[in-house]
Amino acid sequence: MEILVLEGNIAEVREHNRRLTGRTPGEAYADVLQKLDPLVRCEILCPADRDDVGLDHLARYRGVVITGSALNAYQDIPPVQRQVKLALQIFESGLPFFGSCWGLQVAVVAAGGEVIRNERGREVGYSRAVQLTEAGRGHPMHVGRPQVFDTPAVHSDHVSRLPENAVVTAFNEVSEVQALEIRHGNGVFWGVQYHPEFSLRDIAATLRRYGPRLIKEEGSFQTVDELETYARNLEILEDMPDRKDIAWQYALGADLLDPSRRQVEIRNWLDHCRREALRNAA
């Protein structure tokens, strides 16, 4: 099954992430998809850089994923405009469409909604106490999720106005839209404001990437050493998930520690892609 992974970041950010983690966000996302289903084959493209994806190119895939990004959906700049335009093409193609964080925001803007800076501040590391709505409890994207859960996250923007034909499936105290479905044109988008693709090691890299801002501006950590200790402990926990002392200290439960629980929405979306492929072949 061919899946197109659209890396949301510009080249500078991609390479910075590679220096921190050894891979770009798009490469990391493709790894998760292929571990969840070894029959998945991924192509990674970077539409922030140039217009190189069209409907003819999209026709070879069974689904499209947009990763997270350091961009802001309300910026009137080419790297954002290109991705909003492409999201419209994906909707028109009718392909199963999924996005994490930035991916959700791009789909919302493309379908006519609005994204703004969240005045409640940044969620970094985790979204806590995310709750499924009534629609979310019955939605195939969330099969296997409990009513309330924690999940990896990093974002300072959120959806302020829904597009038409959008249904919110999850929320928390920081953002009224933590997950949704959008029906637009010929397509259906499933998306989450959080990052089910993130490992604990990815969270550690995210903390380091935002380090100066988290210390000087947002007060999440007092010193660089404090932040680095936290990040190192997350990496230890990634390699040694039985370290209950670290998990207890940081209040990390199975929703965050167990990949099969972290990645629920992505696994369910891949199942959706397979069902759609069979339906279209019938």
From TrEMBL:
Query: What's this protein's name?
Result: GMP synthase (Glutamine-hydrolysing)
Q: Which Gene3D superfamilies match?
A: 3.40.50.880
Q: Name one Pfam family in it.
A: GATase
The Glutamine amidotransferase domain extends over: 53-202
**A Gene Ontology CC term for this entry?**
cytosol
* Taxonomic source organism: Paracoccus versutus
Report the InterPro entries cross-referenced here.
ChyE-like, Class_I_gatase-like, GATASE
